[in-house]
Each structure stands twice: as structure tokens, then as C-alpha cells.
């Protein structure tokens, strides 16, 4: 268990402490359940009612809420960001691997940096380069000539295909596949002819990728994920996709081939994005969005029909199918009105 003083918390968060600097905390807890030894925070105003009675050793709040707190207070610019930093400092998640497991299979010409760890039954093929402090979890496969940057961690059973480049300080969760073939085929008289995928996947620094996600290699050029991108679980990123700096993508999203997504975009869960389109910087797409055309202006976009009682949904669906008919009737009425006004 990690213990941190409130003085150290102030340093970690850049906050201003009001209270006992020597008091210690060991974990982060919700405000209404926090006890002695816990640190908590207020980011949602609906929990402000708990401030006066909160039992935590310290509460992280903005300056406006300081007087409402009864004990030690750490005033910060953004309590949620402070929570993230403190949670990192108190994190007890074990490493995916420590040292080199005897059952790991490592090619003789693979280059391993200092303090590299490789878990049980992992396979490191010829020409691979692993940066300093890289951690390769149990059962991982690292294909020929792939490069894994310094401080990057792969959890168990991650597969990194040949020639893939993964930058520094990345985190890849279990069972993800990076560099598999994109969906490329030609059809000759009803027979499918596979198109070899000759590009690779280039992933920048500080990228985090969830579990069971697939990122396909490019057909001719590379699939590119820029720095500081976060990608959730169970996602499909097709061949030649480009994702810009700082973009966040929630679970279940599918991106078709050769689409370019700009910087600082936020893609809600379950979104489907068509291929060969471009989305500019700063776009937010709410969950279950269906993006069929490119987006050329920054802003928030939504699509789909919100949940309704079944009887109402059936009526809505019927009306949707009749839109073309209704449009023709409306135009006929407008035409008749114009004729009447002219006569």
C-alpha cells in the first residue's frame, strides 16, 4: 500500500493546501464514502452537499468551495485532473511482467534496451527493437522488425505484427491486435482475390489502446495514430486511417479505411465512420453516431433515434419509411399553392 503526505499531494497536483501537511493518505474514495486515510474530490456540483460531513483526510476542491469544507482542503484548478494525478501516484496495479521469463522466446538478433521485461511464453521475433523499460506481457507476439518504444507496456496476449512502430510511454491492454491485414480484396467474376497489405502501423508517443481492439496495417501507405491519442476497448481501426493528436475514441467505434480524423476530436461509443472521408480538428461526435460524409466544421454532431417505447418507435420507423412519399406530396401541394396564387 502506498502512503502519501498531504504536502506531497500539493506538489503532485500543484494545489494550495489548507490544513495538516503531515497527514497521510493511501487511497482515493468517493466523497460520500470516504474515511480517514482517504483523499476525495469535488468535480460534480451535485455532490457539494457532502462537503461539510465528509470524513476524508483531505478534499480537493476549487477555491469557491473551500469554505464549505470542514477539514483539510487542497485547492486546485481542476479537481478531476487532480484526482487523475493523485490516482496515478497511489496506483498499485502490478506490472505486466518483471524481468525476462525463462519461457519467453527471443530471437538472437532482437535488440533489448535497459531494464526490459518479457513475460512467460511471449515471442519476440527477428529484428525487433524494444526500448528501455519496455514491458511485454505474458503470451505477447512481437513480429519481425517491429519497434516498441521506451517505457511502453503491453498487457497479456497483445499481437504486434511485423514492421509496426509503437512509440514511447504507450499502454496497450490485453488481446489487442496491431498491424493485422486490412480488408482489401478485388473481385474477378465472383472470386475474391486478396490484396496484400504492404503498409504498416505507426503509433506515436503516449498513446493508450484498450483491450480487444484491432488496428489494421495500411494497404500501400501506413495507418497512423499520432501522439496523445486514447482508444477504448473493442474498436476497429481500418487500413490507412489517420487519427490526429489528442483525439479520444470511446468503445465499440468502427472506422472504415482511409479516413482521416483530426486533432482533439472526441468520438462517442458505438460510432460508425465511413471510409475515405475527412473529419476536421475539434469535432465531437456523440454516441452511436453514423458518419457517412466528411465533417468540415468544428462542433458537436449527433445522429440516430433516441430510445423510445416500442409502440412509439414503430410509428417513428413507419414515418421514416414514408418520408419520400410525404416529400412528393408536399411538393405537389406547394406547386398547387403557387399556381393558385398566380391565377
Automatic annotation (TrEMBL):
It comes from the Bacteria. NCBIfam families: lipid_A_lpxD (TIGR01853), PRK00892.1 (NF002060). Catalyzes the N-acylation of UDP-3-O-acylglucosamine using 3-hydroxyacyl-ACP as the acyl donor. Is involved in the biosynthesis of lipid A, a phosphorylated glycolipid that anchors the lipopolysaccharide to the outer membrane of the cell. Residues 25-88 form the UDP-3-O-[3-hydroxymyristoyl] glucosamine N-acyltransferase non-repeat region domain. The active site is at 239 (proton acceptor). Homotrimer. Signal peptide: none annotated. Belongs to the transferase hexapeptide repeat family. LpxD subfamily. Keywords: Acyltransferase, Lipid A biosynthesis, Lipid biosynthesis, Lipid metabolism, Repeat, Transferase. SUPFAM superfamilies: Trimeric LpxA-like enzymes. InterPro entries: Hexapep (IPR001451), LpxD (IPR007691), Trimer_LpxA-like_sf (IPR011004), UDP_GlcNAc_AcTrfase_non-rep (IPR020573). Pathway: Bacterial outer membrane biogenesis; LPS lipid A biosynthesis. Gene3D superfamilies: 1.20.5.170, Hexapeptide repeat proteins, MurE/MurF, N-terminal domain. This is UDP-3-O-acylglucosamine N-acyltransferase. It is an enzyme of class 2 (transferase). It catalyses: a UDP-3-O-[(3R)-3-hydroxyacyl]-alpha-D-glucosamine + a (3R)-hydroxyacyl-[ACP] = a UDP-2-N,3-O-bis[(3R)-3-hydroxyacyl]-alpha-D-glucosamine + holo-[ACP] + H(+). Its EC number is 2.3.1.191.
Amino acid at each position: 500500500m502506498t502512503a502519501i503526505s498531504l504536502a506531497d499531494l500539493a506538489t503532485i497536483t500543484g494545489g494550495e493546501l489548507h490544513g495538516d501537511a503531515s497527514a497521510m493518505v493511501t487511497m482515493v474514495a468517493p466523497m460520500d464514502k470516504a474515511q480517514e486515510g482517504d483523499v476525495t474530490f469535488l468535480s460534480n456540483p451535485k455532490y457539494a452537499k457532502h462537503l461539510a460531513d465528509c470524513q476524508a483526510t483531505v478534499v480537493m476542491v476549487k477555491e469557491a468551495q473551500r469554505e464549505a469544507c470542514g477539514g483539510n482542503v487542497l485547492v486546485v484548478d481542476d479537481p478531476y485532473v487532480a484526482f487523475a494525478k493523485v490516482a496515478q501516484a497511489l496506483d498499485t496495479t502490478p506490472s505486466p511482467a518483471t524481468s525476462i521469463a525463462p519461457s519467453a522466446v527471443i530471437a538472437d538478433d532482437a535488440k533489448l534496451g535497459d531494464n526490459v521485461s518479457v513475460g512467460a511464453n511471449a515471442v519476440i521475433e527477428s529484428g525487433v527493437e524494444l526500448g528501455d523499460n519496455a514491458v511485454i506481457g505474458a503470451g505477447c507476439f512481437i513480429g519481425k522488425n517491429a519497434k516498441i518504444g521506451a517505457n511502453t507496456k503491453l498487457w497479456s496476449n497483445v499481437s504486434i505484427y511485423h514492421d509496426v512502430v509503437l512509440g514511447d510511454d504507450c499502454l496497450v491492454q490485453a488481446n489487442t491486435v496491431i498491424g493485422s491485414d486490412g480488408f482489401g480484396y478485388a473481385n474477378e467474376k465472383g472470386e475474391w482475390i486478396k490484396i496484400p497489405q504492404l503498409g504498416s502501423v505507426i503509433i506515436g508517443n503516449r498513446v493508450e489502446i484498450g483491450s480487444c481492439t484491432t488496428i489494421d496495417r495500411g494497404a500501400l501507405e501506413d495507418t497512423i495514430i499520432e501522439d496523445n491519442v486514447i482508444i477504448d476497448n473493442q474498436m476497429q481501426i481500418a487500413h490507412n486511417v489517420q487519427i490526429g493528436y489528442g483525439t479520444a475514441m470511446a468503445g465499440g467505434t468502427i472506422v472504415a479505411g482511409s479516413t482521416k480524423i483530426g486533432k482533439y476530436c472526441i468520438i462517442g461509443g458505438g460510432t460508425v465512420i465511413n471510409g475515405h472521408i475527412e473529419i476536421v480538428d475539434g469535432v465531437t461526435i456523440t454516441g452511436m453516431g453514423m458518419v457517412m460524409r466528411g465533417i468540415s466544421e468544428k462542433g458537436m454532431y449527433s445522429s440516430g433515434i433516441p430510445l423510445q417505447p416500442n409502440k412509439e418507435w414503430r410509428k417513428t420507423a413507419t414515418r421514416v419509411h414514408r418520408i419520400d412519399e410525404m416529400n412528393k406530396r408536399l411538393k405537389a401541394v406547394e406547386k398547387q399553392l403557387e399556381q393558385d396564387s398566380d391565377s
